[in-house]
Automatic annotation (TrEMBL):
InterPro entries: Extracell_DNA_Util/SecSys_Comp, PilN
Coiled coil (residue ranges): none
Source organism superkingdom: Bacteria
Keywords: Membrane, Transmembrane, Transmembrane helix
Protein name listed in UniProt: PilN domain-containing protein
Entry keyword Zinc: no
Length: 198
């Protein structure tokens, strides 16, 4: 006689398969969740590290910007001091210039030539005066040309005196001062000496 199993073995097998399926599904879900969590932690740590590096670089850039501003201010101060030193050197170099010009002109002006006005503007000199003869003015031009301090003598005009009894001629002459830089705003070397004579 054949053996017949009357128990619901198909239902039991189906339930066992469902249980295994749920177990595998749960394990897969947990493994996936764990994997996503680990990957998220790794990338979060990397992002945090990069943010810290970015903040560090930003702080260092701020420090460098501040130092660049300080260096720029120091450069401006240095330029200002150099300009002041240059001006002081020019003033020191031209301190005795007025006396030297007066001495040089006194040596260059021959007898018979009388200066009535002497004016200095920058490196230019203006001489106005009277002369007994044109030869004496020629001597003055030669002396000024041979001078180490005076240069480029230029006679603007010579005219006979308006007074017919006078033998003196009026003249106007321009000279250059060499070897000294003109100091801006410098006053004339000497006030106009009206009626002065050599």
């Amino acid at each position: 006689m054949a053996y017949i199993n009357l128990l619901p073995w198909r239902d039991a097998a189906r339930k066992e398969r469902q249980k295994q399926y749920l177990t595998v599904l749960t394990a897969t879900a947990m493994f996936s969740f764990l994997l996503i969590f680990v990957v998220n932690m790794i990338y979060s740590a990397r992002i945090d590290g990069q943010m810290q590096r970015n903040n560090y670089l930003a702080n260092e850039i701020k420090v460098l910007d501040q130092r660049i501003k300080e260096i720029s201010m120091l450069n401006d101060t240095k330029k200002s001091l150099q300009q002041r030193m240059s001006l002081i050197e020019q003033l020191q170099g031209s301190r005795n210039l007025g006396t030297q010009i007066m001495d040089e002109i006194a040596q260059a002006v021959p007898a018979g030539v009388y200066l009535t006005q002497l004016e200095k503007k920058g490196t230019s000199l203006l001489l106005v005066g009277r002369s007994e003869s044109n030869n004496r003015l020629s001597n003055l031009l030669r002396e000024a040309d041979d001078s180490e301090l005076l240069a480029s003598p230029l006679l603007e005009f010579i005219e006979a005196g308006k007074d017919s009894a006078s033998l003196l001629s009026n003249f106007k002459m321009h000279l250059k001062v060499e070897g000294f830089e003109a100091v801006q705003g410098e006053a004339p070397v000497a006030p106009a000496a009206k009626g002065g004579a050599k």
